[in-house]
Design brief:
There is one protein chain. By secondary structure, this protein is of the alpha+beta class. It contains one helix and five strands. The strands form two sheets. Strands 1-2-5 form a three-stranded mixed beta sheet, covered by helices on one side. Strands 3-4 form a two-stranded antiparallel sheet. The protein is elongated.
Length: about 90
């Protein structure tokens, strides 16, 4: 999934599935559309990141290579947040 209006997304690069998540959402009181002082406008849609991530990981897991060299399968699944975890 890739969207210019989403705060989280995924894409494929060769045999790698890469997932980008917003690390400042899905917590109690998180804003729906935060204001960006750089862009001078409200940000994109948060949506339901947790449900989206679970579905994206299920789909990616079903496409794992498991040692086979098949087109469209993944050897790696990488998840990153836009801020460090610690």
């Amino acid at each position: 999934l890739s969207s210019s209006d989403s705060m989280f997304y995924s894409f494929d690069y060769g045999n790698v599935h890469i997932i980008g998540i917003n690390s400042e959402t899905d917590y109690l009181g998180a804003p729906l559309k935060p204001y960006s002082p750089i862009a001078k406008r409200a940000g994109g849609s948060f949506g339901n990141q947790t449900a989206w991530l679970e579905e994206d990981l299920k789909t990616a897991k079903n496409r794992r290579c498991h040692g086979r060299k098949l087109p469209g399968c993944y050897d790696w699944i990488i998840v990153f947040g836009h801020r460090p975890m610690y």
